[in-house]
Amino acid sequence: MDAFDLSTLVFVIFSLILTAIVYKRRSSNKTKLPPGSFGWPVIGETIDFLFSNPEKFVSNRMKKYSPDIFKTKIMGEKTAVICGPNGHKFLFSNEEKLFTSFRTHSMQRIFQSYQSNSPSPSPSQSTRVIIRQPGFLKPEALTRYLGEMDLITQELLKSHWEGRNEIKTYPFAKFLTLTLACRFFLGTNNTDRITKLVNYFDDITLGLHAMILNFRGTAFYRANKAAIAVRRELIGVIKEKKEEMANGVKMQDILCYMIVVTDSKGKFMPENEIADKIMGLLVAGYSTVATTITFLMKYVGQRSDIYENILIEQKEIVAAKKPGEVLTWEDMLKMKYSWNVICETMRLTPPLQGTFRQVLTDFTYAGYSIPKGWKVYWTASSTNKNPAYFQNPEQFDPSRYEKRDEPTPYTYVPFGGGPRMCPGKEYARLAILTFLHNVVLKYKWELLAPDEKVVGDMMPTPEKGLPIRLHQH
């Protein structure tokens, strides 16, 4: 090859490389990704997300990159974190248009039946249909259960608190909420079975957002083992239910409905799938309610003025009732101040930091493009403590919900919004109000570790279980 041919070849190669670089830059300009960092290879920013506190993780990057949106890589996924009230509104308005539910890989592994590749609706979608269609969580259905919820709460407070000077709030809150959830979802109040399940559910909750490291000592390993044990226990409950139903025993709970419901082809749901769906409902109805009750006790225990206001409201409700009469829906509607206190608790300490969505199609938000297949992370913490939306955001102030100018729409969304708003919102409200009603009428308390450290990643947990000293009225 002569010198001319060689120089021509070099020129052609150089031109092709240059053209490719220019084309790549132009293409990347068309797809303007949000600012941010994907972090380390493979693990991305997962460790920082999980172990530096998700709320702080989001807050720091909002300040560094953008208050509206930033990119990251967490839980093995390229993710756009959409922030602020406008972000909340955009997300809630585009459910099943631009986004669909996404379960982290650890969740998919723990809830085994969710790994099906069938074209049927997603597990979360089908579960929402199951619990909403028969109206299990509608006010009229919950009203029938409210009296029993009141009696169970009274009974557990008596058996666990009466005659004791000190108790740990968090373990009790978990036992109470799991008892209520088992009674409501499973139709069972077997205390031995519930006691056995509590520790399993703790491990499952911690493993839902853990890195998939399946060897002894890791959070995921413990969660996986716990899920196997719970699934085995629930399949036992399902078999018992089937036998009772076959003998003509009439039952009205979500588990029974799952047993008898069929798909479009007339097929019944497999027992493993029923067990996984019930396990998911129990986890949701157990951990978030228990966390809110625990921190409610903390904040009210710090403020005697707030305690007295709650007590006045609850005494007025009792004064209008006959002795021994259980709570009614009308009573719940009168607990306006008490509910404001609970709302303020969830603002300062959200029981769940956030959830993921999968992007169904390319879209643009705040001037940035988000590709199909990415994940979107939604979190209430991008607004909860922002002084632009909440005056004196670190102050515990239940009266802020009585003011017309606060909160701004889409700034306070502890239960999400849109089609995916938590279907258990009313159930949670009744459970927490029922507990608060009963506890303030019998007890006053003081915190034994007022500066107790809050640990946990996606689920905040008081390190010592929130020990309190009781004073019975």
- Describe the global form: globular
- Estimate nothing, just give the exact number of structural domains: 1
- String of helices and strands: HHHEEHEHHHEHHHHHHHHEEEEHHEEEE
- Radius of gyration over C-alpha positions, nearest whole angstrom: 25 Å
Largest β-sheet summary: 5 strands, mixed
Q: Examine the secondary-structure arrangement and name the CATH architecture.
A: Orthogonal Bundle
Q: Provide the structure class.
A: alpha+beta
- N- to C-terminal distance: 103 Å
Report low-confidence residues grouped into runs of 5 or more: 1-12, 22-29, 114-126
Percent of residues in helices? 40-55%
Number of separate helices: 17
Which terms summarize this structure?
alpha+beta, about 55% helix, 3-stranded antiparallel β-sheet, disordered N terminus, 12 strands, single chain, Cytochrome p450, about 475 residues
